[in-house]
Amino acid sequence: MVIEKNKSMREKVYDSLKEMIIDGIIQPGERIIETEYSNKFQISRTPIREAIRMLELEGLVESLSTGGVIVKIFTKEEISEIYKIRIALEGIILEEIIKKGTSQDIKKLEKVLKNTKKAFELKNIEKVFSLFTEFNQTLYEIADLPKVTAMINNINLYLKRFRKISIDNAERKKEAFKDHLEILEAIKRKDLPFAINLNRVHLEKSMNFILSKYSI
């Protein structure tokens, strides 16, 4: 693998390592050895070291007391806490949408759900997963709260590898789609308490499914 040099080397390495961690190419508990990735990316060890520091600040890797760095292994308690934070932040998003959402915004959400239904019918699972993400991102765009969205996106970095466990389950996919439909209906009715409760239950179902499959 060769890293392109048209961007800051540290940023390029950071992006590549982060993607490998989130996609599960580098597994939780696996050591990140500077010399190994220096050879793999065909660059010096300095940008590797700098990128690792950035990943450590984000909580994706951690230093061992004995030396070296590993991909962080999340406990069940930490996963639960991450979900609780997302539930709270998305409550703020829903409040803002119900306060200022337009008919055009509703149409955008309806289009995403229509495409999701079509992807289900075609059994295009990767597309379904992508459209679930698009539905959430459309909600964040409508709310137009950049700082809240940035916090949610940061939280979602930790959840991405866990969400695939949940979404890969056929029943969970159908359930999640049904939840999105109901959340949209609550938004249309401007029923904030119901929308927040639906979203909380939706995320708790995902969390509980993941925790039931998680061995840490």
TrEMBL record:
User: In this protein, which residues make up the domain named HTH gntR-type?
Assistant: 7-74
Which keywords has UniProt assigned to this entry?
Coiled coil, DNA-binding, Transcription, Transcription regulation
Keyword set includes Coiled coil: yes
User: Per its UniProt record, what InterPro entries does this chain match?
Assistant: GntR_C, TF_FadR/GntR_C, Tscrpt_reg_HTH_GntR, WH-like_DNA-bd_sf, WH_DNA-bd_sf
SMART domains this protein is in?
A: FCD, HTH_GNTR
Classification via CDD domains: WHTH_GntR (cd07377)
Q: Which residues form a coiled coil?
A: 99-126
The terms under GO molecular function for this entry are: DNA binding; DNA-binding transcription factor activity
Name the UniProt record assigns to this protein:
GntR family transcriptional regulator
What species was this sequence derived from?
Candidatus Fusobacterium pullicola
